[in-house]
Amino acid sequence: MQRAKEVMKVSDGSLLGDPGRTPLSKKEGVKWQRPRLTRQALMRCCLVKWILSSAAPQGSDSSDSELELSTVRHQPEGLDQLQAQTKFTKKELQSLYRGFKNECPTGLVDEDTFKLIYSQFFPQGDATTYAHFLFNAFDADGNGAIRFEDFVVGLSILLRGTVHEKLKWAFNLYDINKDGYITKEEMLAIMKSIYDMMGRHTYPILREDAPLEHVERFFQKMDRNKDGVVTIDEFLETCQKDENIMSSMQLFENVI
């Protein structure tokens, strides 16, 4: 239960920046700077906590930090290339890979692993459906397995991306069938999966009809032309202009 309480605190892994805290108007035009996130801060993210809990001690021989390509069936890209693609330092990538390699010797993560991770961090609810949706969002090519490269690129967006990058990632999560549109049914499915995973140990306590109300409120504002679907442009424009929507979507920052 302590682990669950820790996860439910505000984390660095928000899909949508820091909704409800810093007005977007103050962020626009501000050049991104690399956050000074410590290992402890990164550990607030479920996926990072899972990976780093299996990483070798920081004092271990770093000679294996160039990914020990011969030990896995899927060989990841070099650290320098991944460092260029993400906002992680080389040392952070080394730690992430050590844990990833220990948990996933094949070099790939499957959906069952995601379900196991979230069932451990959210034992008070049913995380199966949310883990399924989140896995599909990371599995960019839809082949049923996530490579280390895809994993850390996704984490980099969620932990350190711009508001725009995080919103695009959130749209991809909501767009379950990947047709470029979000329907009410898709958004409701995602929201219900989050509420199911959080269980009844949330504050304030959530009503059973809360997900539907959440979706109805979103769609009223996002579906500008009232055609029953939300496009990426409608999603980005509405979210970035409406601080209430950004604040209400902060639920995501507790479940990455």
UniProtKB/TrEMBL annotation:
CDD domains: EFh (cd00051). GO terms for molecular function: calcium ion binding; DNA-binding transcription repressor activity, RNA polymerase II-specific; potassium channel activity; potassium channel regulator activity; RNA polymerase II cis-regulatory region sequence-specific DNA binding. It is found in: Cell membrane. Its main location: membrane. It comes from the Eukaryota. Keywords: Calcium, Cell membrane, Ion channel, Ion transport, Membrane, Metal-binding, Potassium, Potassium channel, Potassium transport, Repeat, Transport, Voltage-gated channel. Residues 1-30 are annotated as: Disordered. This is Potassium voltage-gated channel interacting protein 3. The gene is KCNIP3.
